[in-house]
Specification:
The protein is an alpha/beta fold. It contains nine helices and 15 strands.
């Protein structure tokens, strides 16, 4: 038996618990992983609490991320002892995920861990950090340079936001962090933010166009915040949109796109091709400041996952959560 989080939904009675799970046999192309670490993302928290329609089949082990060593493989690309990383691909939604001590995952969904990053550091980053890297790469590919001016990061105290602040600062960008928690300003400055603005400046209905300010934006909130970010982006700038924490609606005008040439870049991390994942993780391994990563991360055990998911949705979690499977 192995231990993990299991979510059930029997006759409308939705429940999550940490329990024993009986191991299953591998099918062709699958890999068994001795999971050392996982993490809790916003989507995981929605799944665990039942506050979002994330899970498609029950019972389900949630967790869109995990890292660990291969203990058994029916995929020719992986051998016993390989350390592998999972991010997304519907795991924890349509197929069992990584919040367990032993996970069976399709080899098509895995990449080998880069040599220059420790397994626990990958889960301090998780899908949030990997998504942040995809956003930064997208801004760079869109031509946004440090010389172009300020880059806005919304939801800066969250997982994507905090890592985005760290990465952009490391690359020489002037980062403006937007947050609803002004008491965390010192934390954000420590990650590399040059200035802090209140989220209220962006999260209400705004004008089709505002004063040009941002050369680029990383947005994980959506709704009015994304609309206002687009409306205040400079001519030729770019906005990387990767989340919907404020809402799925986008009450925006076409004005920023047709009058200022602003580029709205949709960032999908769930089904991203393997080559893009390898590029993102290679760059994360190169750029990440381990001391700062440790500062923005909190380690918990498997038994603490369910209450922590509630805190995350309540806005009571700062930065990243590392789940040590054997703590």
């Amino acid at each position: 038996m192995t231990k993990g989080v299991v979510i059930t939904n029997t006759d409308g009675n939705y429940a999550a618990s940490v329990t024993d799970i009986e191991p299953i046999a591998l099918n062709e192309g699958e890999v068994r992983i001795d999971v050392s670490h996982s993490t809790i993302n916003y989507k995981d928290a929605l799944a665990i609490t039942g506050k979002g329609k994330i899970i498609r089949d029950f019972p389900m082990t949630p967790g869109i991320d995990c890292v660990g060593a291969v203990s058994e493989s029916l995929d020719d690309n992986f051998t016993v002892g390989d350390v592998v990383v999972l991010n997304g691909f519907g795991c924890g939604e349509r197929s069992p995920g990584g919040l367990t001590q032993s996970a069976v995952i399709s080899g098509k969904h895995l990449i080998k861990l880069p040599d220059n990053i420790a397994p626990e550091n990958t889960m301090m980053l998780g899908t949030a950090g990997y998504t942040a890297m995809l956003c930064v790469i997208a801004l760079q590919n869109a031509g946004v340079t440090p010389e172009d001016g300020e880059v806005l990061v919304t939801g800066a105290n969250g997982g994507v936001g905090s890592v985005s602040v760290m990465l952009l600062s490391k690359l020489g960008y002037t980062v403006v962090a937007s947050t609803g928690r002004p008491e965390e300003s010192d934390f954000l400055h420590g990650l590399g933010a040059s200035s802090i603005i209140a989220r209220d400046e962006l999260n209400q209905p705004g004008r089709p166009l505002g004063k040009e300010r941002w050369a680029g934006v990383v947005d994980s909130l959506g709704s009015h915040t994304l609309a206002n970010a687009c409306a205040t982006t400079k001519y030729g700038g770019a906005v990387a949109a990767c989340g919907l924490a404020q809402g799925m609606d986008l009450t925006a005008s076409v004005a920023p796109f047709i009058l200022r040439g602003v580029k709205l870049l949709g960032i999908d991390s769930v089904y991203r091709p393997i080559a893009d994942r390898q590029e993102a993780w290679a760059k994360l391994a190169e750029l990440i400041d381990i001391d700062k990563l440790n500062e923005l991360s909190t380690t918990i055990g498997l038994d603490e996952v369910i209450p922590t998911a509630e805190k995350l949705l309540a806005g009571q979690v700062r930065g990243r959560i590392l789940v040590d499977m054997h703590a």
